[in-house]
C-alpha cells in the first residue's frame, strides 16, 4: 500500500522516547525508512526493533548528536544504510530543571544550550548536502515556550526561540537548493516532561500547564507526530519557514481556559500507534550526557 512517505528516508533525533517515538513510528507506518537516533541510554534500539517487528524499516543510531563528528556519523548511517536522506527531524531536546532565574542552575542552562541548540545546528549542517541532492526538508522542534517564553525555565524558551529563527533563516537560504525548513511548536504534550512524577515540574506548575490550553488537556505524542508527517511530506510542498503550533490553543490563551472544558471533551484520543516509551524522556541532568559544548 502506498504511504504518504513511501520511498523516503528520514532521521528522527530523540526518536527513542516521547514525541520522537511517535514521529518515528508514524513515519515508518507511512512507508519511510527511519534512522531512530538518540543517546545510548535512550530506548532507541527498542523503538527501532518495534518498528521492524511491525513490518517497517528502521535502524538505531546512538550517540551525542550535539557533537559534530557524531552528528555527521548519524547522517552517514542514513546514507550508507538507505542510499540517501530526504527528511531530517530535529526533535531531540532536554528539559532538566525548573526554578526562577535567580536560582536557576547554571549547569542546567549549559545542558540545554548543548543538547537543544548544538544538536540542531550540527545535524542540520551535516544533513544539508544530502537534502540538497534529494530536494528534501527539515522539521525542527520549536515550542510555544519559544514564542511566549516560559516562567521557571526561562532559558528553555530561549533555546527554542533560537530554533525558530534558525529554521526561518535556513528556509530562506536553502530554498534555491530545493530544501524546505519548518518548525513544529508543541504546547504541553503527554510525555515525561509535563508530569510532576517524571519531570522537574512542581504540582502547581503541572496544574497551570494543563489548565492553560483552551482545549483543556495535554496533546498526545501522536497528535504532534501527525503534524510532523504533514510538514515532512510532499503535501506541504509550498510550506517553508513556518512555525506550526500544535498547542491546544495555549499561545492564544489568557488564563486557565482549560478549566472550563467539560471532562468528556478533555479525554485524549486513543490514537493508532503502539507507543511504549512516551514517558521515558530526558528530564534531569545526566552526567554522561553533559560535557564540553565545543
Ligand atoms: N513535551 C512537551 O510538552 C514539549 C512541548 C514543547 C516542545 N517540546 C519539544 O519536543 C521535543 C521532544 O520532547 P519530549 O517531551 O518528547 O522529550 P523526551 O525527553 O521524551 O525525548 C527527547 C529525546 O531526545 C534525546 N536527546 C536530547 N539531547 C540529545 C542529544 N544531544 N543527542 C541524542 N539524543 C538527545 C533525549 O535523551 C530524549 O530521549 C523536544 O525538542 C522538546 O523541546 C516538547
TrEMBL record:
SUPFAM superfamilies: NAD(P)-binding Rossmann-fold domains
Region Disordered: start-end pairs: 250-269
Family matches, as NCBIfam families: PRK07231.1
Organism name: Hymenobacter saemangeumensis
InterPro entries: NAD(P)-bd_dom_sf, Sc_DH/Rdtase_CS, SDR_fam
Pfam family, one: adh_short_C2
Biased amino acid composition, Basic and acidic residues: 256-269
Protein name: SDR family oxidoreductase
Top-rank lineage group of the source organism: Bacteria
Amino acid at each position: 500500500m502506498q504511504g504518504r512517505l513511501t520511498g523516503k528516508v528520514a532521521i528522527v533525533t530523540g526518536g527513542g522516547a516521547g514525541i520522537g517515538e511517535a514521529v518515528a513510528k508514524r513515519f515508518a507506518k507511512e512507508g519511510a525508512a527511519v534512522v531512530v537516533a538518540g543517546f545510548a541510554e535512550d530506548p532507541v534500539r527498542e523503538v527501532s526493533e518495534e518498528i521492524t517487528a511491525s513490518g517497517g524499516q528502521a535502524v538505531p543510531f546512538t550517540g551525542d548528536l550535539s557533537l559534530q563528528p557524531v552528528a555527521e556519523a548519524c547522517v552517514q548511517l542514513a546514507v550508507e544504510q538507505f542510499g540517501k536522506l530526504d527528511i531530517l527531524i530535529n526533535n531531540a531536546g532536554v528539559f532538566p530543571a525548573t526554578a526562577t532565574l535567580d536560582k536557576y542552575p547554571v549547569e542546567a542552562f549549559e545542558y540545554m544550550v548543548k543538547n537543544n541548540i548544538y544538536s540542531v545546528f550540527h545535524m542540520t549542517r551535516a544533513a544539508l548536502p544530502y537534502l540538497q541532492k534529494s530536494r528534501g526538508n527539515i522539521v525542527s522542534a520549536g515550542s510555544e515556550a519559544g514564542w511566549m517564553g516560559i516562567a521557571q525555565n526561562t532559558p528553555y524558551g530561549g533555546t527554542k526561540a533560537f530554533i525558530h529563527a534558525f529554521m526561518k533563516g535556513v528556509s530562506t537560504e536553502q530554498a534555491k537548493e530545493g530544501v524546505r525548513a519548518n518548525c513544529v511548536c508543541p504546547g504541553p504534550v503527554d510525555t515525561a516532561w509535563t508530569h510532576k512524577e517524571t519531570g522537574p515540574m512542581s504540582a502547581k506548575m503541572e496544574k497551570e500547564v494543563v489548565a492553560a490550553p483552551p482545549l483543556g488537556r495535554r496533546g498526545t505524542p501522536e497528535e504532534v507526530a501527525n503534524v510532523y508527517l504533514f510538514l515532512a511530506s510532499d503535501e506541504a510542498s509550498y510550506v517553508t519557514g513556518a512555525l506550526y503550533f500544535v498547542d491546544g490553543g495555549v499561545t492564544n490563551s489568557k488564563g486557565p481556559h482549560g478549566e472550563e472544558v467539560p471532562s468528556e471533551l478533555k479525554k485524549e484520543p486513543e490514537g493508532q500507534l503502539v507507543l511504549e516509551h512516551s514517558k521515558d524522556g530526558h528530564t534531569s541532568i545526566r552526567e554522561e550526557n553533559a560535557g564540553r559544548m565545543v
